[in-house]
Design goal:
Strand content: under 5%
Number of domains: 1
Largest sheet: none
Helix content: over 70%
Oligomer: single chain
Shape: globular
């Protein structure tokens, strides 16, 4: 049976410690963390309240929170047996024995601690609500696969991803620049929520059989393959209809339709989702991450150009 790149690496020669921690951090997931910060900072630019320090700190904190969540998922899925047997996704360092569970847990807390330090700086410039948001993000990252009721195991993953990667991430980034929220920030969070949810949908569609076997009842398991593919399609349609609706409602400039330049990539991802299953969906997963980042850049560009 064909092995993934990560599996080949683990079987042929044990990677160095730095490589192991890079595998654990899963850098290919980081565009999902960066994209909402890009959009939130562009909204602040449009409002004339952009602050470089806030943007950089928010970006670093978002990346650290994502890495911390990845480490949490790695070790908590291991404890629940979700990574047992054949895996189609990236190599998990706890299950593979590259790191001991206690090492991953310590690494998780170190990463969350660094994110918290950045949160203190952001709270210093934007107020105490930032602390509450940061704590909620850390708790959600852990509760996704850890704790007594991990919502990722009960079909609630998409809901929480939409909330935290969409509403919270975009709105929170805008807030640390401006110390307030706006209706446009709320609307702009919707396509980010849709697209990052789509990343999770691909992940769960890929793992649908293995998740079903271990009792991990993701929404993809509950809906079935066709339902999950329709969910992915719904997310992408929602992302592209949002800027159109904002323009038609005269809430934002037509420049937001620059996001439609990413439709060819979106179309390729939709075709792939409907044509393949299992390990080949790793390509669709990475492609949806690239789509999310490209969309965010185009959305941000539309906001900035429209402000001139």
């Amino acid at each position: 049976m064909k092995k993934s790149i990560g599996e080949e690496t683990a079987s042929s020669s044990k990677p160095g410690l730095w490589q192991v921690w890079m595998l654990a951090a899963r850098p290919k997931t980081l565009p999902a963390a960066a994209a909402p910060v890009i959009v939130g900072s562009a909204l602040a630019w449009q409002a004339g309240q952009f602050r470089l320090g806030a943007a950089l700190a928010a970006l670093a904190a978002a990346l650290l929170l994502q890495i911390g969540a990845n480490l949490a998922n790695d070790v908590f899925d291991f404890h629940r047996g979700a990574d047992a047997g054949e895996r189609f996704g990236p190599l998990r360092v706890t299950q593979s024995g590259l790191l001991r569970p206690e090492q991953v847990v310590r690494g998780m807390w170190v990463v969350f601690g660094l994110a918290a330090l950045l949160g203190v700086y952001l709270a210093w410039i934007a107020g105490w609500p930032v602390i509450l948001v940061g704590l909620a993000c850390i708790l959600a990252a852990i509760a996704y696969t850890g704790g007594p009721l991990p919502f990722g195991y009960y079909g609630l993953g998409e809901l929480f991803v939409f909330i935290f990667f969409g509403l919270v991430a975009v709105g929170g980034t805008y807030y640390v620049h401006t110390k307030c929220l706006s209706s446009l920030a709320l609307y702009a969070s919707l396509p980010m929520g849709f697209l990052i949810t789509a990343i999770l949908v691909v992940n769960n569609l890929r793992d649908i059989e293995s998740d079903r076997k271990v009792g991990k009842m993701t929404l993809a398991v509950r809906l079935g393959e066709r339902g999950a593919r329709l969910e992915y399609l719904f997310c992408l349609i929602g992302a592209y209809l949002t800027p159109l609706a904002l323009w038609l409602a005269k809430t934002s400039p037509a420049w937001l339709l620059l996001t439609w330049l990413s439709i060819p990539l979106s179309y390729r991802m939709i075709r792939m989702i409907w044509q393949v299953k299992g390990r080949p969906l790793n390509e669709a997963l990475a492609g949806t991450g690239r789509l999310t980042l490209l969309y965010a850049i185009l959305f941000a560009a539309g906001l900035v150009i429209g402000a001139w």
